[in-house]
Amino acid sequence: MDIHDHLKMALAALMANKLRSSLTMLGITIGNASVIAMVAIGQGTQKLAAEQFESLGPNVLFVSLGSERVRRDLSSKMKPLLLDDAEAIAKLIPSVSDVSPEIHLSDLITYRDQLFKNGIVGASPDYLLVRNYQLAQGRFINKIDLRRTNRVVVLGAEIAQRLFPKQDPIGQQIRIKNLTFEVIGTLAPKGALFDSNQDNKVIVPLTTAENQLRGQTSPHGIPLTLIAMLAQDQETVPSAEFQVKNLMRLRHPLASEDDINIYSQNALLESASKTNAGLTRMLAAIASISLLVGGIGVMNIMLVSVTERTQEIGLRKALGAQESDILGQFLIEAVLLATLGGAIGVSVGIGGTIIASSVSSLVTSISPVSIIAAITVSGGIGLFFGVFPAKQAAKLDPIIALRSS
């Protein structure tokens, strides 16, 4: 018998027991739908992570110094990261084009009847370029603001909308730590970076944050939370990282190798991608358990089918059918069951993913490779779990089969 005849007989056998065939395919369908959905979510998350890290800015590097304890303890023997360090980087590292020293604080912000605690960034004029922000309106902090320690503030898109939903924020006054600040500008929306909302920024001049908001002093100079900087181009990022680290070693001899932390956008993205890839594989592995259960269901139903069709098997063998013919017929039935169930599962998975992403903030990305792999794996499961029942059918003695009927 050729493959065409086997297919016709397999389809006829499956159609003869429609309900049983449908229930058998259900396990494979659920398994494939789960795998497609989990992989789509995982790949969508990876894509989102890449887009979010790109929003940090091109060729960006971040430098911090010491453990969290050292950064908070300004009386520590090891000097904290200083404004002098940022100035030294800008002056001595030729592969770095722009430098943005930053102080990160958290304090109470009030406007009329609104009161909440929010993150505050003390920054320099280069912050806008290095951090890849765009102004929506007004102006940004300038050198005069730094020199005079002006009480001016630039608001992120979300917090500006929160404070001034129906009015122009420029020229309005808010209070930070019971000090009055004038709003001079707002930033264009940028989105979230993992658990950090980049549109919830409150930015004040670096000197104002140090002298009027922080309330602490250091004998070494103005302590910073971190220094952000831009390399000249993508090719100079490794050399900039190397040169900055060597400079920090010279300027902070008490700092150990682990105390000098330098992160590049590419390194952060690679780390996040590895984490997301691992989570995607884990989710796909968990969802694949349903496929295993579906495969066992296929084997179970095929064994029942062999028992029910002993007369048919005996008659065909008595009429000259070879063991390979019987084996082929039952294998094709098993593969057909699994493949059809897999195809339906892929359709359900794609449809469910599209609906979920359209009605929620769920990020998904459907890959053609995962679709092809899911259907191929389904057929393979049918083949694997169909071998044993098919062999049982092929080995039946025709005389015993006919008598048992």
UniProtKB/TrEMBL annotation:
Keyword Protein biosynthesis: no
Keywords: Cell membrane, Membrane, Transmembrane, Transmembrane helix
GO CC, alphabetical: plasma membrane
Alphabetical list of InterPro entries matching this protein: ABC3_permease_C (IPR003838), MacB_PCD (IPR025857), Macrolide_Exporter_MacB (IPR050250)
Main localization, broad class: membrane
Transmembrane segments annotated in the record for this chain: 21-42, 282-306, 327-356, 368-388
Mode of membrane association: Multi-pass membrane protein
Localization per record: Cell membrane
Domain ABC3 transporter permease C-terminal: 285-398
Any Pfam family the entry gives: MacB_PCD
PANTHER family linked: ABC TRANSPORTER PERMEASE YTRF, MEMBRANE COMPONENT OF TRANSPORTER-RELATED
UniProt name for this protein: ABC3 transporter permease protein domain-containing protein
Annotated organism of origin: Rippkaea orientalis (strain PCC 8801 / RF-1) (Cyanothece sp. (strain PCC 8801))
